[in-house]
Structures are given as C-alpha cells and as structure tokens.
From TrEMBL:
<dbReference type="InterPro" id="IPR009078">
    <property type="entry name" value="Ferritin-like_SF"/>
</dbReference>
<keyword id="KW-0479">Metal-binding</keyword>
<dbReference type="GO" id="GO:0006826">
    <property type="term" value="P:iron ion transport"/>
</dbReference>
<dbReference type="GO" id="GO:0008199">
    <property type="term" value="F:ferric iron binding"/>
</dbReference>
<dbReference type="GO" id="GO:0005829">
    <property type="term" value="C:cytosol"/>
</dbReference>
<dbReference type="InterPro" id="IPR041719">
    <property type="entry name" value="Ferritin_prok"/>
</dbReference>
<dbReference type="InterPro" id="IPR001519">
    <property type="entry name" value="Ferritin"/>
</dbReference>
<dbReference type="InterPro" id="IPR008331">
    <property type="entry name" value="Ferritin_DPS_dom"/>
</dbReference>
<dbReference type="GO" id="GO:0004322">
    <property type="term" value="F:ferroxidase activity"/>
</dbReference>
<feature type="domain" description="Ferritin-like diiron">
    <location>
        <begin position="1"/>
        <end position="145"/>
    </location>
</feature>
<dbReference type="Pfam" id="PF00210">
    <property type="entry name" value="Ferritin"/>
</dbReference>
<keyword id="KW-0560">Oxidoreductase</keyword>
<dbReference type="InterPro" id="IPR009040">
    <property type="entry name" value="Ferritin-like_diiron"/>
</dbReference>
<dbReference type="GO" id="GO:0008198">
    <property type="term" value="F:ferrous iron binding"/>
</dbReference>
<dbReference type="InterPro" id="IPR012347">
    <property type="entry name" value="Ferritin-like"/>
</dbReference>
<protein>
    <submittedName>
        <fullName>Bacterial non-heme ferritin</fullName>
        <ecNumber>1.16.3.2</ecNumber>
    </submittedName>
</protein>
<keyword id="KW-0408">Iron</keyword>
C-alpha cells in the first residue's frame, strides 16, 4: 500500500506532466501556424512523451493500490515569440520539471518508499535526456539565428523525430 503523502505527490506529478503535454501541444500549434512543420513535429513528439510520462505515473499509482485523482490543467500560453524564445521556454520548463521530479523523489525517501524510489529513477534519467535534447536544438538555433534558409534546414531535421513509447517495465 502506498502512503497518502506519496499518493498525493504522484497525483500532483500526473497533473504537471499533463500540463507539460498541453504546453508542448500549444507550442506545436504555434509552429504549425508558421508553416514550420518540422518544429511542430518535434513539439508534437514532445507532447506525446509527456502524455506517456503521465500515463506511466497513472499506471504505477494503480499498481500500488493508490487512488488516481485527476486535477484541473491550466490553459497554456498560445504566443511564444521567436523560435529561440520558444525553445528557451521549453528548457526552463524542463528544468522546472526536473525540480519537481527531484522533490517527488525526496518524498519517496522521506516516506521510506523504496519501491517508489526505484520507479522514479526512470524519471530522473529521463529528465537528463529531456534537458539534453532541448539544449541541442537551442544550441543549433543560437548558431543559425533566425536566418530563413538555416531555419528551414533545421525544420527538415526536426521533422524526422518520432515518438518511441517508453518500455512497459521500468527499463
Ligand atoms: Fe515529463 Fe518533459 O518531462
């Protein structure tokens, strides 16, 4: 059985992951509106990853005999400025999520919930990967600026990203 404190914290993270999904879906629509289909695709894959993160937590809470309580998801912004500004926002958001995951892990430690500690290690690793992949796009944008030809080249590169569902187990 899972403690109330751990259950509440996981429910809070489910809400945060769905907000992340919503935010990236809004960013994807913004890029789509500018006919940057590769950027839109990259952000749509990001959206699908966030839904899978929420689902992973949702399934885990059920497996532990906890009660899922879905909460209100705030509306995300719909304007994001330049591509560099948009990706800065993605990075800042991912750093915030890393902070949330670390706090969730702290709850698992304080509750002496060893199973949750092992489960959450997947998310700790995932955040390293998330920040790194966003940082890569930002680095490229910093080099090319807003030059049309180079942005279109990067747009083509980002169009190749595909969603890979996380393994059902904790690998
Ligand atoms: Fe679910 Fe991008 O962190």
């Amino acid at each position: 059985m899972i403690s109330q404190k751990m259950q509440d914290a996981i429910n809070g993270q489910i809400q945060a992951e769905f907000y992340s999904a919503y935010l990236y879906l809004s960013m994807s629509a913004y890029c789509e509106g500018k006919s940057l289909k590769g950027f839109a695709n990259w952000l749509n894959v990001q959206y699908q990853e966030e839904v899978s993160h929420a689902t992973k937590l949702f399934t885990y809470l059920g497996e532990r005999g906890g009660k899922v309580r879905l909460a209100t998801i705030d509306a995300p912004p719909s304007e994001f400025g330049t591509l560099a500004e948009l990706f800065e926002m993605v990075l800042t958001h991912e750093q915030h999520v890393t902070d949330l995951i670390n706090k969730l892990y702290e709850v698992a430690v304080s509750e002496k919930d060893f199973a949750a500690q092992i489960f959450l290690q997947w998310f700790i690793n995932e955040q390293v990967e998330e920040e790194s992949s966003v940082g890569e796009v930002l680095d490229k944008l910093a080099v090319i600026g807003e030059k049309t030809v180079d942005v279109l080249y990067l747009d083509k590169e980002l169009s190749t990203r595909v969603f890979v569902p996380p393994a059902a187990n904790n690998a």
